[in-house]
Amino acid sequence: xxxxxxxxxGPTPVPSEVLLAQARPxxxxxxxxxxxxxxxxxxxLKYVFQTELSDVLIFASSGTGAMESSVVNCFCAGDKVLxxxxxxxxxxxxxxxxxxxxxxxxxxxxxQQVVDPADIAAxxxxxxxxxxxxxxxxxxxxxxxxxxxxxxxxxxxxxxCVLIVDSITGIGAVDCKTDEWHLDxxxxxxxxxxxxxxxxxxVTVSPKAWKAYERSTLPKFYFDWKKYxxxxxxxxxxxxxxxxxxxxxxxxxxxxxxxxxxNIITRHARLAEATRKGCEALGLELFAPAEGRxxxxxxxxxxxxxxxxKLVSLMKNKHxxxxxxxxxxxxxxxxxxxxxxxxxxxxxxxxxxxxxMSLMExxxxxxxxxxxxxxxxxxxG
Amino acid sequence: xxxxxxxxxGPTPVPSEVLLAQARPxxxxxxxxxxxxxxxxxxxLKYVFQTELSDVLIFASSGTGAMESSVVNCFCAGDKVLxxxxxxxxxxxxxxxxxxxxxxxxxxxxxQQVVDPADIAAxxxxxxxxxxxxxxxxxxxxxxxxxxxxxxxxxxxxxxCVLIVDSITGIGAVDCKTDEWHLDxxxxxxxxxxxxxxxxxxVTVSPKAWKAYERSTLPKFYFDWKKYxxxxxxxxxxxxxxxxxxxxxxxxxxxxxxxxxxNIITRHARLAEATRKGCEALGLELFAPAEGRxxxxxxxxxxxxxxxxKLVSLMKNKHxxxxxxxxxxxxxxxxxxxxxxxxxxxxxxxxxxxxxMSLMExxxxxxxxxxxxxxxxxxxG
Lengths: 381, 381
Prior knowledge:
The structure is a homodimer.
Chain A: E1 5-6, H1 16-22, H2 32-48, E2 55-60, H3 63-74, E3 80-85, H4 88-99, E4 103-108, H5 117-126, E5 132-136, H6 148-155, E6 162-166, E7 185-189, E8 200-205, H7 207-215, H8 225-232, H9 243-259, H10 261-281, E9 297-301, H11 308-317, E10 321-322, E11 324-325, E12 334-338, H12 345-361, H13 370-380
Parallel strand pairs in A: 1-10, 3-4, 3-5, 5-6, 6-7
Antiparallel strand pairs in A: 2-8, 7-8, 9-12, 11-12
């Protein structure tokens, strides 16, 4: 037997309470029992998204479905949108927007750069007929955190432009004040901060986004927001929901309410800081820039002379600790340590210890225990 | 404590083995372990769909997502399609086709009628430029079984016309020979004959359907078939899959392989026949016509003088047995008894006994035990 640890930025570990809630005998979705589940999921997600003004809609799909829903429900073919990205997942919104025939302008940044809100302000000033600004809050591929609060303040001045925020790995890890920051559409997926298996996605829809919906002519059915809203009035869904995942969500929301959203965000900040300090103490260099580091995942450069792919597979196969490697251009060059959702102090210790042992095995020279020591200092602080 | 029984045509009961497989600790989806799960799910679904020629693609969505996928992947806006329906779910394909701007002709039948293949033949002869015929095999709202084999033989003669079959409650309950019957696209959902919670959907795609895909220009992303096919070559999925449901699917496929698809279909026929004979012995009239009765669900007229809604709620609240009521025009007028998926002899006995007791309580006059007696005769035969 080898104990296994899932230290990736999604799927993330699922608490036993949630795993077992999902394993309850199946119930029918058109029943008062399930209506209660829907009500609790929606109200809990509003709490997590920090919104009272927006509706929250839940889909049986992965996060990409929620991304697509934001495009098909807010726009017409030919609409001008600005897609800002600095990583793989942000780029996906460009691909979706293009697939639906939007007139896409891209503000592309390096994976180690933060999106500059001033660039967005300048673009909107020059192109006041832009119908949407699309941005990722917490970029999973690079660990970079974009300042969606600042972007919200800019887009709020444009009545016919909605701000769409992919917060798939942001929600539950970093602060995301949907109402206060004027975020019109915010999305997340279940296998992230919500501590569930993948298969559910959620979006918030602000009054401004509903206005965009009314003029939108892109074809839609399964992801048609209005169908979901109409059914929510009766605490139900237009199509058969993912019943077991919804029951799991109600359970994880219970855990999140008990801890409190502010405490959850503080915990993530603390664990991320311990991970960063631990890695730096080992002589490893952080990938994300100091001015924009998210708390869901810590990407770190693989040190000179170490094979990044070997490092990931050694940690997994020899030590049972699964972390993520780099994607696209950074395959084999960075590792990504997840600390999103159901994570506590000793998960960080475990990951750092597995990293230390694997680095030793690969001949990298450092002071064994130094990573743990630095992490402990943060965790005790 | 009240023991609860789910006797609806979806969601259906989930075997404990499957419930618990889903509750295993989360694993990452980009790993050899999960590649094995994908491979087993696809190969198992090919077995269940009885196909070697078609590809099988799996989505994190409910059945409606698979329905939408068949439209957006096969057609261009303005394409002529023929939608044949005799119930609520068949009608949904019309709504989806219209949402995507197809030129839809409807062959509508009453809910108690079988779609007549001769009408389809006549339509295609008069409109040889029809690009698709869309039909439901097993209509859940009415219990009617349409003869998709006969329709397959007709559509096979038209090289540029695909046959799309909604077999969401057909697969695993009635015979569906995808290859032999020339069915180009067949779809199902997880919460039906596959004995899983809802949240997964699958489609088969024949070489002819891939040809249709190549000329299709409707916008798509999340449900883009080619993205799934390309990833299947590496035993993976383009977007994060519903990991726990896929692990459950691998488990239920194990159960289905052990029993054998022919035996599964025979079991469903036997249980459906016991249900029908049991209801008739109680003096209740079957809703679906003799020439087209499916084996997934048995709809029955509520007898004169009995309140149909009360009957369903009495069975549920007093006896713990959940069956389905009628939909749309038949709300309160019919009941629908599910026997789809994880069902055995004594589930039928249980349902009939609860039905007998509830009918007695509502003052309906019949010989108590007569339904059970008739069912036993079938089950012993």
